[in-house]
Amino acid sequence: MLRGLYIASALGLALAGAAATLNYAFLRPTTLRVAVAQGTDDHKLVDAIGRVFSVSRDNVRFHVVPVGTAGASSAALQSENVDLAVVRSDISVPPNGQTLVILHRNPALLIARGDDAIASVPELKGKTVGIVRSTATGVGNATLFDTILAQYEIDPSLVRHEIIERKAIAEAVRTRHVDVLFVVGPATAEISTEAVSAVAKASGSAKFLPIAEAKAMAQRSSALDSTEVVRGAFGGDPPRPAETFETVGVTVRLMARATLKDSVAADVMRRLFSERLAIARLDKLANQIEAPATDKGAAMPVHPGAAAYLDDEEKDFFDKYSDFIYLGAMALSVLGSGLAAVATRISTTDTMNSTACWSGCSRFSRAREARIGSMNSTNSSGRRTRFLPQAWQTEG
Question: pTM for the whole thing?
């Protein structure tokens, strides 16, 4: 009986251990490695996201992996050294990358002095354009500027390219070292506002050159985006710009490796949109986070888990884990049957042992009684001898 109790206890402990292991596997936080160019506005944004995620009870965490440039961020995702990466749509988009969200849109700004006669892109011939290099882009901004010139069939050799650092913007404009600034970044980013302010301070006002063919450029290249810069986007009185204008731009995306589980991608989406206000308290750039279009066949595909979340097609708990639940139920059924069989066998064995014991005792008792009867028969002297136990044997 004790043997059966020990076996049942061992099986119960094994079942409890399995349940605890499954609970840990399903409920422990998933830590995702995120590549981003260090020292950039995007680095600050991803850090803010990671800080908000770290204090929540949900099961997603960010581990930020700083890299040198936007190209290095894309390369890290392509080699699957990271799970997520911040990628600019015109710089080395990894073939295995799929979009989760658009972090922000970066309009390309051509900013001229208010006291110059330059008013359009074709008038840049013979001028010097200061291409502001950000920490992340490398030569990406220069390549984008040449793409704009190609739209107007302007030979790049006819426009002098001057790569300038962010800290040199004000001096380059003040000394007329450049005629026009070319900046790529969110309208709210410091690099954009600094460039506009430097031109306005040097010449009294800033003039923006529109790219009216932005939609056509975006149709030819999925890396580009047509965007509007609204009147007064950069403040000022009179407002800067004075009128809403159209320009070409790029998108900065949080991309995931294609092999990332759909459920994890959906969890990231849910967290980003539910916690966006908290993230924006740490970095206002979070206000520009937006959902991507989920059109099938897009040049930059959306991760299936993100698309399921956005299209309200996300699987619920039972849909996601129905196979595990079914297999678990089968395992419990088999385990229960095994326990019942073991218990039955132990009970049967105990019953058989008890029956054998009683049967042996009964046979012994009958044999003993027969022997006593034979010895109680009359002896030759006529005296009756009764065989009794030695302790209380008497003669009659």
Answer: 0.75
